[in-house]
Amino acid sequence: MDILTAMQCIVFLISDIYITYDTIKENEYAYIAKQSYLEKIEATKYFYKISNQILLQILTELELTSSKLKLPYTNEQIERLIYSLNKNYNLTYFITKLIDYIGIENCGRLLLKIPTLTINYEDGITKYILNELGSYNHDNNTITLHCKNQDVLSHEFLHAASTLNDKYYTYVGFSANNDFEQFFYGFNEGYTEILNQRIFGSKYTGYIANYAICLMLETMFNNRKELEIAYFNNDLKIFIDKFLEYGTLEEMISLLNTLDEFATTPFNNREFNNALNQVYEIIKRNNELDKIKTCEEIINQYKPKEKSFIKRLVRKPN
């Protein structure tokens, strides 16, 4: 073997070593990220188990009331202020659609949030490892997007437009949380996707199981507008009172826990089907044929057919 050939072999050998090293490090990073993800899943399951025990106690002992805001402005003044204080011009379309759909009288939370609301775009490991496309951070009033997708932006905008901070909790739509507790998270995500399609015509559906189950729960109301308005006023009592006309408090806690798990961890089709059937059986009790028929249509449309695991498509950290 001449010197030139030997040098070429050494170069190829060194290249193979570097390629092998890079592959090992890439696999190592992926393994660490996966382990961290699995640990988060287990912690989340434990958190929701304890959290819903607390929720059961709270709902038993406390009388939840609507958090309607009383602002010192007329509806016309509120509308003008929202537009004038908006610093994100790509939200103007969503603001107009929201006001037209829900009414300016239900946009008090948007008025409080719009002056400081910011949008950031980040393309990092969160998107690829956790399938997280976007999030809304109520602490700093920031929407973070991991992809430039209008349907994801409108979903996060709904969170911002339905957020209210008080002394003990932050309310985001139908969810309530603080540093120690989180309630109604999965229910809120599913219903947010319903509103995202109705108000903004979103063609993308995240949280598909939560979305389908919330559609069924909404049939409990003779007028769905009642629940829509409650969402923008963080009125949990509206839903609780209506559910208790059909099911028990323990059944509601169980279902809320299931929705929380569906929104944060992978689940299989059997679990999804069981949840659909659980809601269907609860709604059937009042023998309202039109509502039963609507639920059957929802089940036929969204009931999964194949045996596989379903992952969440959008997830928000708190």
- What structural class results from the helix and strand content? alpha+beta
Shape: globular
Mean of pLDDT: 81
Going across the biggest sheet, name each strand in turn. Answer: 4-5-6-7
Largest sheet, in brief, is:
4 strands, antiparallel
- Structural Rg: 23 Å
First and last CA, distance? 64 Å
Q: What is the subunit organization of this protein? A: single chain
Number of helices: 13
Which strand-content bin applies to the residues?
5-15%
Low-confidence stretches: 6-38, 43-48, 308-315
Number of beta-strand segments: 9
Tell me roughly what share of residues is in helical segments.
Answer: 55-70%
The helix-strand sequence is HHHHEHEEHEEEEHHHHHEHHE
Overview of the molecule:
A four-stranded antiparallel sheet has the order 4-5-6-7. It has helices spanning 3-61, 75-85, 92-102, 108-113, 125-129, 150-161, 185-200, 208-218, 224-232, 236-243, 249-264, 269-284, 289-302, and strands at 118-121, 134-137, 142-145, 163-165, 170-172, 175-177, 182-183, 267-268, 309-310. A hairpin with a 4-residue loop joins strand 4 and strand 5. The termini are far apart. It is globular. Helix content is 61%, strand content 8%. It is of the alpha+beta class and 318 residues long.
